[in-house]
Amino acid sequence: MLEIGFIGAGTVGTALATRLSQKGARIIAASSRSLTSAERLASSLPHCHACSSPQEVADVAELIFITTPDDAIAQVANEVHWHPGKSVVHCSGAHSLDILKPANQAGTNVGSFHPLQTFADINQAVENLPGSTFAIEAEEPLLSTLKELTSLLDGNWIELKPGDKVVYHAAAVFACNYMVTLVELATDLWQTFGVPQKEATKALIPLLRGTVNNINNIGLPDCLTGPISRGDLGTISKHLTALEDKNPSLLAAYKQLGLHTIPIALGKGKITEHKAEELKTLFTNSKGGSQ
Question: End-to-end CA distance of the chain, in Å?
């Protein structure tokens, strides 16, 4: 059985090591900037021991995951003495394989293995991993090994080419991080009519879940609802007026998002080209325009 080690015992490394171990993988070594973190992870896994340095992990494991913060990956890659024939994989969403060039030059197989998932805390991350998609970069035989680990994690995989990674990661920011931003903006608006953020968030969660379910079950563009999907200029005009009055700082964002939503509504087939042009005019020419 492949012996796996982790350099980095934060949320991502702990979640991956824990889930892989639960599925039968043999995690034998872990290091971290803090020995206490490495010991905490090692003590939770049946075959794992805490290492005082990344080099110890690289010496004993056959497959090494670098799960440090992105800014530390290059330092680890440069400082560790890598062994030919072994494999090292980073889990960054933005970096490609070039950051592991020192390991590759030493004859080590290199790859990247990015879980397309949010890692807010360890317990939730372990819970969220099954069903996730993993973005993989590697050459054989490591490529097949990483695909097997994806299956072990009950996930799916996509294979990225050199140069794909940054755009892939930017897309993830739109889907995940900016959704948090949008909820923040929505709860700010609820506070204008006296509902505190915590209560507003609780009220919006079922709507968010319903939206995600519609995206999953109905798909784009047919899952789109709301005034733009209906071509309801009157309602949108009221929104623009209310935002100008209550929170004008959100007006530009509302308009820009509206302009990006018009093509989705056209794709759904519920508005005409003429109605789409009317919507564009409304978003670009109304008071507080965002051109």
Answer: 59
Whether residue 291 has pLDDT greater than 60: no
Q: What is the pTM of this model?
A: 0.86
DSSP string, 128-144: H-TT-EEEEEE-TTHHH
- Tens-digit pLDDT profile for residues 75-87: 999 999 999 999 9
Q: How many residues does the chain have?
A: 291
Contact 188, 253 (CB under 8 A): no
CB under 8 Å to 207, separation ≥6 — which residues?
none
Task: Evaluate the CA torsion angle 9, 10, 13, 17 in order and state its sign.
Answer: positive
Q: Which is nearest to 286 in space by CA: 242, 263, 257, 255?
A: 255
Phi-psi region of 192 (alpha: psi -120 to 50; beta: other; left: phi over 0): alpha
Pairing of strands 63-66, 133-138: unpaired
